[in-house]
Amino acid sequence: MDKFRAELRFPGCGVGGLAVGGIQHQGAREYQEDSYGFSEVTPDKPLQRFTAVVADGMGGLSSGAFVSGYCVNKLLEADIGEGHIPIHEQLTSVVRRISGEIAAGGSRGGSTLAVVVCVPKGVYFCSVGDSRIYLLRRGVLTQLTEDGDYFSVLLDRVISGSLKFTQALSDPDKDALSQYMGSGTFLTPDRNIIPFAPQPGDRFFICSDGVYNALSSEEILQSLTLSAGAAVEDIAGRILAKGYTNQDNFTAVALEFLPGDVPEPAEAEQKRVKYDSCDYSSCTSVGGCERNEDSLFTGNGVFAVADGLGGHKGGERASRVAVDHISSHTEGKHTPERINELFEGANASVRALGVGMSTIAAAFSRNGVFTFGNVGDSRVYYLRHGKIIAQTRDHSVCQAAVELGQLDPEQIRGSEDRARLLKALGSESSLNLRRGYDPIEIRPGDSFVVCSDGFWEYVHEHEMEVDRLKSFSSAEWLRYMLKRHLMKSGDIGDNYTAVCGIFTDQPEQQKLLPKRRFNAKLLIAAGIAALMLCALAAVLVFLPR
C-alpha cells in the first residue's frame, strides 16, 4: 500500500496552508493500474501553486498502468497556472494534448483523469472519465465533477424529452465511458471556469472509481472529517474491511485547507450592468405526479414560479392565477414593498377562485437592480462569483425552527414538518407580509435561481454553486442541475420548476421561444451535446468498469 502525507504552507485563496494525504492499493486485481502525483514541493518555501492528480488506467486495455502514469507525469510537467491564459483553458488544452499523444503513440491503453490546481486566486478542478472530485464543506459532501460515461449522455436525452428516465437507467451500456484519456483530442473535460474560493476546513477529495464503488457517500463523508492523512488511511481501511473478492485498484487523495493569518483579498471594484440583459433558461416537469401543478412566467425582466399545493383541490388553477397576476403587473418599480403588494394581489386573485392554494417566488430585474420575494417555500437564490449571497426564507415550520436554532438549514429537506407552511396564497384574506429583501445592484456575471420546492429538495445549495462555477451559459448551468435532480429523485418525486439566469453586460437579443416542456435554449444545447457525445461513443469500445 502506497501512502503520502504532507503539510504545506500555501498563503493563498484566503487560507494559510494545505495538508495533503494520498493512498493507493492494488485491491484484488493482478496489476496496479492507478497512478497519482503532486507538484514538487520545496521545503520551507511557500507555495505559489499546487497540483494533485489521480489517473485510473482502464481495465481491459493493454498498457493501462503506463498510460495512467504518463497522464500524471505530463500533467504535472505542464506548469498549469503560468502565463496569462485562463487556467480552465490551460487545463482543457493540456488534457487534449496529452490524450492526443497517447492516441498517436499507438498504445491501446486508456485512462481516466482527475486534477485539482490550487493558485492564490482560487481552486480549479478538471476530470475526464469517471474518476471523481468531491468537496466536503460544513458537513455536506458535494460531488464536483460529472462522470464522463454514457449514462450522462442518456440523461441529456431525458432532459430533452426524447427518453424516459427508466429507459436510461436500464440501458445495458450506461456505465461505459463516453470519453477517456487516449481517445484522441476530441475531449470535453468537466471543469470549472470560475475559480472556487476555499475556506479553512474545506476538504477536496480526489479518487478513482475503486473508492466510490466500494463505499457510500456517507462513509466517505465520515472519513473526510479526519485530517487529510488520517482520512485517506481510514478510507483504505474501510474498503479493505469490506473484503470484496473483486475489489478494484483504488486511489484516494485528500486536500485539507488549513486556517492561517492570511487577510482576505480585497474585492476588485466591479461595474454594474449597463443593460437589463439576462441569459436565462427554464424548465417545468410533472416529475412522478399525475399532473403538473407548478406554473412559470418569464419575460420583461420578471421571473415567477408558483407551486399549487398538493392535496388541495384546485392547486393547478391557483398557481396559474398567481403567476398571471404577476405577469400582468410587470411594469414599474419593484421595491420590496411593491413586491409584497403584488403578492397580496395574487393572494386575492387565488381566493377569488374559491378553491386551491399556492406558494410563489418572484424576481425582478430593473435598471441594474435585482429585487425578489416569496410566499411559502418556493425560493429565490442570488449568486455572485459562484457563491450564494442572498436567498429567500421559507414561510414554514421548518424555517421557524432554523431561525430559533433548533434545526440546521440542510435538515429542512429531511424533516417530517417540511410541508407544513405558515403562509400560502389563498389561505387567508391577508398575508400580512412584514419582511422584504434588500435590493441588489447587479454586476456582470451575477446569477440567480427561482424554483419550487420540488427542485431545491434534490438540488442542494452547494450544488447550485458548483454547477454555476462550471457554466458559461444558463442552459449549461440548468443542465448540470437537472442531471443531479434526476439522479437523486429518479424522476418519481414532486413536480419541479426552475428558472436560472446569468446577467451579462451585452444588449439582450430578442428570443422567440416555442411552448415546450423545457426552454428551447436548453433543448438545443442539450441536443447538440448529446449528438456530439453519441458520435464519439459510437466509435469507442464500451469498457465495463
Quaternary structure:
single chain
- Beta-strand percent range: 25-35%
CATH architecture of the largest domain: 4-Layer Sandwich
Percentage of helical residues? 25-40%
Q: Count of DSSP helices?
A: 14
CATH topology of the largest domain: Phosphatase 2c, domain 1
Helical/strand content category: alpha+beta
Q: What is the end-to-end distance?
A: 22 Å
Mean pLDDT over the residues: 88
CATH class of the largest domain: Alpha Beta
CATH homologous superfamily (4th level) name of the largest domain? PPM-type phosphatase domain
According to DSSP, the number of beta strands is: 21
Poorly predicted segments: 509-545
Largest sheet descriptor: 6 strands, antiparallel
Question: What would your notes on this structure say?
Answer:
The chain is an alpha+beta fold. It folds into 2 domains: 2-148 and 180-258, Phosphatase 2c, domain 1 (4-Layer Sandwich), CATH 3.60.40; 278-504, 4-Layer Sandwich (Phosphatase 2c, domain 1), CATH 3.60.40.10. Helices cover 30% and strands 26% of the residues. The strands form 4 sheets. The chain has a 6-stranded antiparallel β-sheet with strand order 1-2-11-10-7-8. Strands 3-4-5-6-9 form a 5-stranded antiparallel β-sheet, with helices on one face. A hairpin with a 2-residue loop joins strand 17 and strand 18. Helix 3 runs antiparallel to helix 14, helix 8 crosses helix 9 and helix 12 (461-469) packs antiparallel against helix 13 (474-489).
